[in-house]
Amino acid sequence: MGFAVFHAEKITASGASLGAHIDRQEGQEHTYTNADPKRKHLNKDWAITLHCQKPLHTALSDRIKEGYTGSTAIRKDAVKGLSLIMTGSHEEMKTIEKTPDMLKKWVNANYKFVEQEFGKENIVRFVLHLDEKTPHLHAVVVPIQDGRLSAKKVLGDRIEMSKRQDRYAQLMEPFSLSRGIRGSKAIHNSEGWYIGQQQAEKEAILSDLPKMSLKDRLNPSGYEESVSNQFKV
């Protein structure tokens, strides 16, 4: 049995870069370097709300204008959204992907979870990525509750966040995905899954670079040329 992964991260910036990554925006390929262009057509997105059809930074702003009823101005550094990643151990996720009906049920279970935890009206992205190594879902929600914009209130304290992980794991049990070790920083239980992918790619690139010798240090332009030649097609 593999591990279920649910990770939530606060969005304090405009969300433009995150939107480019999730939406696979043309001209912004540097935001999704792990993606296989040949598998891009396998990705799926759902217009849960009308905001899902807008650029992410616009969607966040519009949902806040729509749902915020406070009398004070929103601070520039306020958390405007929550970026959610839902996936699981690689082997189990590839098994789920191989069976269309199972993949559909997995997506539906995740949607049900996001809707119950954060509210359908707050969903501004819900996207399935199958063009990276491990199948996963991205969801972006605006942390509005009772007219207030408050990520702290929506996410809750450490106890509530742990309970949310329990609730998520329970929904994932039919897919052979279980709760990770409580308090663990292992890849299966945190943002380490995503960071691990990025780090692996970085290490692979660096390992292909020519080693810098003493001669190269004295003549850095020559080393730069050798590196450039390394990546010429």
Task: Describe, in plain words, how this protein is organized in 3D.
It contains 9 helices and 8 strands. Strands 2-4-5-3-1-8 form a 6-stranded mixed sheet, sandwiched between helices. Strands 6-7 form a two-stranded antiparallel ribbon. It is of the alpha+beta class. It is 43% helix and 17% strand. A hairpin with a 6-residue loop joins strand 4 and strand 5. The chain has a single domain, classed as 2-Layer Sandwich (BirA Bifunctional Protein, domain 2).
Summarize, please.
The protein has 233 residues and is α+β, with helices and mostly antiparallel strands.
Distance between the termini: 42 Å
CATH architecture verdict: 2-Layer Sandwich
| Total number of helices | 9
Question: What value does the average pLDDT take?
Answer: 84
Low-confidence stretches: 185-194, 204-210
Q: Rounded to an integer, what's the Rg over CA atoms?
A: 20 Å
| Proportion in helices | 40-55%
Topology, please?
Layout: E1 2-11, H1 16-23, E2 44-45, H2 56-67, E3 81-88, H3 90-98, H4 100-118, E4 123-129, E5 136-141, E6 144-145, E7 148-149, H5 151-155, H6 158-172, E8 177-178, H7 192-207, H8 214-218, H9 220-230
Parallel strand pairs: 1-8
Antiparallel strand pairs: 1-3, 2-4, 3-5, 4-5, 6-7
